[in-house]
């Protein structure tokens, strides 16, 4: 969490410098395409500081008023960023229409191209590094910022390419065409960021997160873990919450069952490099559980093993023990 917070602070401060550079390039050239790039950077500035605050808030421990912690602050921050990105795209489209009816002569394109290219390169490398940190820390705020930085860099490179063509051809409509295209791209990007953040706020199931957890559990599964079902996972900030029913041998003591739960929790915790909170309901195995039980020396076995059941996205969601006959 500390590395994500520190990086978000750098993103916020660095975005101010990049915004200033793009404004300088626009002032020199009066290019609406460069203005497009600069307007998108205003989003980087605003959301950079919002993200900085949201990560620091999400890192606060849970309290009586927030029993699941403050992690949802990251979803709200990403939602704000998505809205602002989309608004920036709409502003760009408006500016394109305005310039179409009120043309402005272009100046010093060579200097503007160099300045804009430098900001794009810096943006790309910062976004690339931020995305690595986001995946390591599983931070949605940093991931949203990193995604926007990289898309901003791609936009900048395309704008630079168009400005080079404009510099040699002097076809003024190229400037407006570039701005219009990337205005639409920015709107779509904003929608995607907003859609993902709203999914988190509404506790929409994260299919990939559940698959990642199941991959780990299948690889390091204990033979005592006979069955896993009615499973749900969700992540608030840095805390991964796992809610599931685990079937253990019916003759296990409370101490033995507790040991298995802690073992499962530790495996997931080690892999995800953060705090994992498990809510595990213990089910005792039944006669039909023997058909999927891989314990070789179980003295209470009543049926032969019919085959190992690998846990996957489809079968762990069901609210019934596997192997149970259909009623």
CATH topology of the largest domain: Alpha-lytic protease prodomain-like
Strand content: 5-15%
Categorize the overall geometry. Answer: elongated
Q: How many domains, in number, for the residues?
A: 2
Structural category: mainly alpha
DSSP helix fraction: 55-70%
CATH class of the largest domain: Mainly Alpha
CATH architecture of the largest domain: Up-down Bundle
Widest sheet: strand order? Answer: 1-2-3
CATH superfamily heading of the largest domain: Cation efflux protein transmembrane domain
Biggest sheet layout: 3 strands, mixed
First-residue to last-residue Cα separation: 48 Å
Total strands: the figure is 3
Number of helices: 8
Strand-and-helix sequence, N→C? HHHHHHHEEHE
**Spans of at least 5 consecutive residues with low confidence:** none
Taking all Cα atoms into account, the compactness measure Rg is: 26 Å
What is the average per-residue confidence, as pLDDT, rounded to a whole number?
80
How would the blueprint of this fold be written?
Blueprint: H1 2-29, H2 32-58, H3 73-101, H4 109-137, H5 140-169, H6 172-201, H7 207-219, E1 227-236, E2 239-248, H8 254-272, E3 276-284
Parallel strand pairs: 2-3
Antiparallel strand pairs: 1-2
Helix pairs in contact: 1-2, 1-4, 2-3, 2-5, 2-6, 3-5, 3-6, 4-5, 5-6
Structural account:
With 327 residues, the chain is mainly α. It folds into 2 domains: 2-201, Cation efflux protein transmembrane domain (Alpha-lytic protease prodomain-like), CATH 1.20.1510; 205-327, Alpha-Beta Plaits. The protein is built from 8 helices and 3 strands. The protein has helices at 2-29, 32-58, 73-101, 109-137, 140-169, 172-201, 207-219, 254-272; strands at residues 227-236, 239-248, 276-284. A 3-stranded mixed beta sheet has the order 1-2-3, with helices on one face. β2, α8 and β3 (276-284) form a beta-alpha-beta unit. α2 runs antiparallel to α5 and α2 (32-58) packs parallel to α6. The longest helix is centred in the middle third of the chain and has 30 residues, at 140-169. It is elongated. The mean pLDDT is 80.
């Amino acid at each position: 969490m500390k590395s994500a917070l520190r990086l978000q602070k750098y993103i916020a401060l660095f975005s101010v410098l990049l915004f200033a550079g793009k404004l300088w390039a626009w002032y020199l050239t009066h290019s609406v395409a460069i203005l497009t790039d600069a307007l998108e950077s205003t989003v980087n500035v605003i959301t950079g500081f919002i993200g900085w605050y949201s990560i620091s808030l999400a890192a606060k421990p849970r309290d009586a008023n927030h029993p699941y912690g403050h992690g949802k602050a990251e979803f709200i921050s990403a939602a704000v960023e998505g809205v602002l990105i989309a608004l920036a795209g709409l502003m760009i489209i408006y500016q394109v229409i305005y310039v179409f009816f009120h043309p402005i002569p272009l100046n010093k394109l060579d200097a503007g191209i160099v300045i804009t290219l430098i900001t794009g390169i810096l943006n790309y490398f910062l976004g690339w590094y931020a995305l690595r940190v986001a995946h390591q820390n599983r931070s949605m705020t940093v991931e949203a910022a990193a995604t926007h930085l990289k898309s901003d860099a791609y936009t900048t490179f395309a704008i630079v390419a168009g400005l080079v063509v404009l510099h040699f051809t002097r076809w003024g409509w190229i400037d407006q065409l570039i701005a219009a295209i990337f205005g639409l791209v920015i709107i779509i990007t904003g929608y995607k960021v907003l859609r993902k953040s709203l999914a988190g706020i509404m506790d929409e199931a994260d299919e990939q997160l559940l698959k990642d957890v199941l991959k780990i559990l299948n690889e390091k599964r204990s033979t005592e873990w006979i069955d896993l079902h009615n499973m749900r996972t969700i992540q608030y900030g840095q805390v991964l919450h796992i809610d599931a029913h685990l079937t253990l041998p019916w003759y296990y003591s409370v101490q033995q069952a507790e040991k298995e739960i802690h073992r499962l929790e530790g495996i997931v915790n080690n892999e995800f490099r953060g705090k994992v909170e498990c809510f595990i309901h213990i089910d005792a195995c039944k006669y039909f559980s023997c058909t999927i039980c891989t314990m070789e020396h179980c003295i209470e076995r009543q049926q032969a093993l019919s085959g190992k059941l690998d846990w996957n996205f489809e079968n762990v969601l069901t609210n019934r023990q596997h192997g149970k006959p259909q009623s």
